[in-house]
Design brief:
- The structure is a single chain.
- This protein has about 130 residues and is α+β, with helices and mostly antiparallel strands.
- Helix content is about 40%, strand content about 20%.
- A 4-stranded antiparallel β-sheet has the order 2-3-1-4, with helices on both faces.
Length: about 130
């Protein structure tokens, strides 16, 4: 078995950046992302969401394309939320942002993701870690 460690910081948003991630459904959103990532043998280091987007630090194996991981996770999570809350349509927008990072940057990336709500509230965002489109 080959050795690999491939860390990615992935961020994507709700359709039209609508405030679709609520205190009521956030747990379902995040748990669905985690469940699908486990199926793809891609351990999540940490994940978090604010009302209109999600950040994930994940270790994706070379056998899974990043685009495939994103597609599967977004699809499964939106279906799960829509099945759980059928009266509130939930959609992700197309596209995503992804950055690679090394092991020594893992603590920084994890802290940034875990403190998303504070970063948005205090306007202490790092633009390159929030970017979804070019």
């Amino acid at each position: 078995m080959p050795y690999w460690v491939c860390y990615y910081h992935v961020v994507w948003a709700t359709k039209a950046r609508a405030a679709l991630i609520t205190p009521q459904n956030a747990r379902v959103v995040l748990e669905a992302i985690e469940q699908q990532s486990v199926k793809l043998k891609s351990p999540i280091m940490t994940l978090n969401a604010v009302m209109d987007h999600v950040h994930v630090a994940v270790c994706i194996p070379p056998s899974v394309a990043v685009s495939q991981w994103v597609s599967k996770v977004k699809g499964f999570s939106s279906r799960t939320v829509n099945e759980t809350y059928p009266d509130t349509p939930f959609q992700w927008q197309e596209g995503y942002g992804v950055l690679t990072f090394g092991t020594k940057n893992l603590p920084f990336v994890k802290a940034y993701i875990e403190n998303q709500k504070e970063h948005h509230h205090n306007q202490t965002l790092y633009a390159h870690l929030e970017q979804i489109e070019k």
